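Worked example 2:
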Amino acid sequence: MLNISERNPFAAAPPGASRIYRPGVRLLPPGHERYQVPAGGSIVISLEAGDEITITNLEGGQVCELMAADTGGRVSTGIIGSNAPSPAHGIRQILATSSDSAAQLRASLARRSIEVEKAEAVHLFTPDTVAGESAVFTAQEPALLVAAAPGAAMDVASQNTVTPLRLDVVRKDPETEPGHDLPEPLADPLQDIRVAAATASAFVVKAGEYIQVIDVDGRQCSDFQCFDVRKLDKGLQKPLDATTTRTLTALGYPAPGLLSKGFDEDMTPLIEVIRDTCGRHDAFALACTSRFYDDLGYPGHVNCTDNFNNVLAPFGVDPRKGWMALNYFYNTAIDDHNALYLDEPWSRPGDYVLMRALTDIVCVSSSCSDDIDAANAWNPTDIHVRTYSDKETISRAVAFRMTPDAEPQMTKDTAFRPAFERHTRNFTEYRGYWLPTHFNNEGAIAEYWACRERAAIMDLSPLRKFEVTGPDAETLMQYTLTRDVRKISVGQVSYSAMCYEHGGMLDDGTLFRMGQDNFRWICGEEFGGVWLRQQAEKLGLKAWVRSSTDQLHNIAVQGPKSREILEQVIWTAPAQTALAELQWFRFTIGRIHDFEGAPVVVSRTGYTGELGYEVWCHPKDAVTVFDAIHAAGEPHGISPLGLDALDMVRIEAGLMFAGQEFCDQTDPFEAGIGFSVALKSTDEDFIGREALERRKAHPQRKLVGLEIDAQDPVGHGDHIHIGRAQVGEVTSAMRSPVLKKSIALARLDVAHCDVGTEIEIGKLDGHQKRLPARIVSFPHFDPQKTRVRS
């Protein structure tokens, strides 16, 4: 997060100056560069003599190797001023993998003829290194530096995870030119085109080639347009049509995934969006025009439409008074009053959109010239365009950032994707991973009934996992969770909330007690790990909090037949609890089929309201685990289950979902999980306790169930009325197949929360159309939880 004490740009600001923090725009001084070394991977950077390198152990306990080679390919630790060489075992281990990081490293070493078979490296840090510890080196001569965060595959029953490192470089002779460096190319570029501020460039791209539009300095908009070359050759000028594109995709603008294409007015697909690291664009307004500036008192102002006309003329394209376009990085929307508004772009330096041409196209990209409002943060800067060969393979992805100033992490496949991909192509981005929404030949309703009547298998790998270890681990978790952690036994799982000081929820999750001083926190929010480390540092606790999300993937096997299926698959040692003996909210350690099988942890937990289990394994074993369970489940009618059906079963079961049933303005009592707050069972303090005692004594809102006397769709955020007054809002809703009625979860004012109270759900403007409903107890399905306890 932005550290205000380190970056205070207002120390000498005159009275009345705007005080604006921009954590999304990196505020590092000139010559200061920052990189993330991926867990289990490496990065390669170039150094000059005198450059200072600082490597920081972000989460603690992660070893590091630094290998430096001079311009002739000679490897020596002395190049970075170290006289403590050791064999570069970790770097060689990374090179032996098939990861993207390894491929990039192999290519960099091959270009420079660097041999690593007998190379030596500087070894840093140990498993006992605390979070935040760093080491500093200085380059003695021009060099190539390899920084690696090596580690073996994590044992699911242990906590030997691999975590990222941070590398900071302070250049001895920083460039004096203002601005930011371009990100590394995604491959060898075919074209490198700089679009200077307030200009445009046109270029030709062949079918299958990629087009990368990069915001160099951040907060800069770029209009993009293209034409089918074959139609232009016939005299048909049919550019990409924003209205057609919005209609066919049912999106405001195309995005990576199934709904990714841009079309012309003939519904011919011209491009598809492959990657997007910004996530906020526009396809409603025209590119800026001369009339726009004329009407605001700026006649003759440079504009994107005229710039388009000028650069498209050589391709035989007639000028227009206004060009529709995909307006990349524009932060434009229509508000509740039907007004089109704009604000500063969300894009950071180096953010980009990557497209692929679906036919030969003439393209044009602008760097928007608007400097009279916030469209380009009042300061137009450059756009850069790269194109890549159709022979390259670049994954579909959007960017995920843990904090506003974090480096973007691209959407990843879970290790179970190859198995689920056999059954569907319908995947959506969820918290940095691709997850299936529904399955071919099945669909959400069929998947739902499989879970309720037989068994279903689903991918929940995006859940965030943190290994919390050390002599003060229990103290840390007791202070940061609302549950009484000291009462949790080894082998037990406990559901808990995690709250801020004001009582609002940061997250919910399950805590596994792996040992006396060993815990595993499973949650939805990546920031939870940062927050836990902050609390450990503030209290001076000897506890490590290390991410294991990418080392521990998991599927859930849920439904009445789940125990029978897993009994055929899970082998446990005599000292472990057998699968048939495993009770609710307990876990066991086992293997697939026998003593030699893939290691797994199996917990009797789930998110469906059914008897069920979650199976946790290392990614390398994921397909093996899936295949074994699926094969055992086929005679029982097991079905894969996607996010659509998962939402149905969890709403019936009255289970919470972040961003709907709770947020940082909602306390656990308002979220319907007051049972997870240990106000009576312990007198120990925990974060938010005082606020929660006050909120419990003076409640304002309560989560309730609704039965709706209509089959019209009801959704999150729909207002709830008694008479004209709004008294609450719907958090989640569905049409329940098993109950044969529409139901909802809703948060209401406590004055109107009695079971049986008649209310109305407002549709349209909230008053013209109302759906009658009544308050009922929840969960709607199996309120006594007899099925999940069976």
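The chain has 15 helices and 44 strands. Residues 736 and 742 are 6 Å apart (CA to CA).
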